[in-house]
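pinning this so it doesn't scroll away 📌
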Amino acid sequence: MTRPIRLAISTCPNDTFAFHAMMNRLVDWRGLEFEIELLDIQTLNEKLLAGELDAAKTSFHAALCIADEYGVFSSGSALGFGVGPLLLAAKPDSVPAKREELTLCPGKHTTATLLYQLFYPNTTRVRQMVFSQIMPDLKRGVADFGVCIHEGRFTWQSEGLALVEDLGTRWEKETGCPLPLGGIVGAWRLGDETLAKIQGVIADSLAFAIANPDAALPTMRHYAQEFDDRVLMQHVELYVNEWTVSLGKVGADALDELANRARSIGLVEGSQMLRIIDG
């Protein structure tokens, strides 16, 4: 018997929203079998880079590093305007400028880290950690700055932290493109037929969620750092959009822009460009 496809997604609300129907087999798996795992984004990136997963959510920074082995499914991505990571400070009116200062980032191969390196090169020391620990450590004075993602976009003010810059807004102003954060990738070794089926299942699961948004809330609550339903749905409204349904030309152009900029400062080697998998 053919082994199940090893699929992993993140615990963030836009993924649990999009994959709720697939996880609970409310859509047709099209003759495939899946082993589905939920992990934090840095662990997802590490497992993909090690070749341990057949398909997974990953940062587009990491996806660029494995573009020869993995393509990006047309459905399931997180990109858009007003969706970028925030650079936060422990103290008001602070800007990264000194090597003795410390900035916390959510993983070496996250798009958030890539943006920090693009816009604040050679400024502070950088320490990688699980995204959910960044704001608590900033509040405790462990670091001077932190790059915040996921639910923290909506809660940083109530945590008493200061905003240095919205890195996504800066990307938009400089490129005119929606910011590509992460997407679902599949290994080319699975073959075109299987990849097309997986794309179809993802698209069906996302369509189910969009048609029945409240149905996904129990799954979203189970995995979220933030349990307030209003915050969870804010997250979905921000990160699930037309480019989540299908990357299209605008999404593809944004991925090319990210690849070119990452390569220009040596964050990605070679000439890798991301190829899109359609159903």
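📌 and the second one:
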Amino acid sequence: MNPSTSALLTDLYELMMAQAYLKQGMDEPALFEFFVRKLPEHRNFLIAAGLEQVLDYLSEWRFSREELTWLDQSGQFSSQLLDYLERLRFTGDVEAMPEGTIFFPQEPILRIVAPLPQAQLVESRVMNLLSFQTMVASKAARSVLVAGGRPLIDFGLRRAHGAEAGLFAARASYLAGFAGTATVLAGMAYQIPLYGTMAHSFVQAHEDETVAFEHFAEAQPDNVVLLIDSYDTEAAAGKVVSLARTLQARGITIKGVRLDSGDLADHARKVRRILNEGGLPHAQILASGNLDEYRVKALVESAAPIDSFAVGTAMTTSSDASSLDCAYKLQEYAGRPCRKRSEGKATWPGRKQVYRYLADDEHLSHDIVTTHNDQLPGEPLLDLVMKNGRRLAHSPGLSELRRHAAAQLGQLPSALQSLEPVPAYDVRISLALQSLAQTVDRRL
């Protein structure tokens, strides 16, 4: 059994509700929407990500014989439910914002319309897939916005919360504008460019630091980027200069060095001077070591001669905002608009569309959330991507999604690009949607 694709990747209450629905014959079309209630404390926007994995999951969604046997042996479920699950395939429709789209609270980024038991059973995995990649892509975009065009590389696998998280983080960060990843499987799975240097252990395994550099260069003649802070950073830079002459005679060029500790700006200035004076002005400096968007911004603003940054743990775990206040809520059943009115968690009922408006300078002005039949002149953000359980078209490639995300980031007003919280973006609830909510409230 592959845990990532198992239909049992759900919460128990989903199965318990499905059993009750079937017992009462409640299998009319249900409309659920995924949205974020509020932004994390240090975010001014979010980037939609994870739709591709949701569509993959729904396309292959089924209960295996092994899973059905286990459910039967648990003694918790009726034969009616087990028979239903044996035949179950996803037959619903999906509408969604394209991955890479900027969005804000109260805006649905995905809608599922399917028979009620189906739409209910997929809730947990859909939320899991969308919330994680959205969280990471939104974190990664903040580094992209402050890096001043310098390449950013994902170094986060080793501290990611599991293999799938590391892989999805590589994908989400690349979508958001990172140049590549060190995670090799992500290179194979998503055609993301791979970047890598060497570890301190490689240097420590040798008696002599220069010999370590030479051995690495001989093994990787087309990708010589040397880690120089194992002992004395500036002394190691001098050794790189001396070794470069020997390697050049063999046709090997040192492409760069990596700094991973200490005062990165100060080391970068000193190392840059040593490299330039030693005839290696082409050798680039890569900085790593517990970087996040705040440290990247500070290094860029200090004019440190750093050519690229490797960002790991903080991005892969979205360390300052490790979860989203997101929801997947029933907004319509059997044609009847539904609304949750819980204190602090009220929802807007019915099938909705989000329209976006740009200012004269082509930056975001405001969004309007309205009912699906209230057609407005702005740009509609939700598109139909799956009909009757089948995709309507091939999914866009990751390179296309990157271009879309870059264009979206380019439309952000300068205030929203800030790392510090600013007044919330203008998301308006239409009169039509407010009127529908009032109608539902009167009925309730």
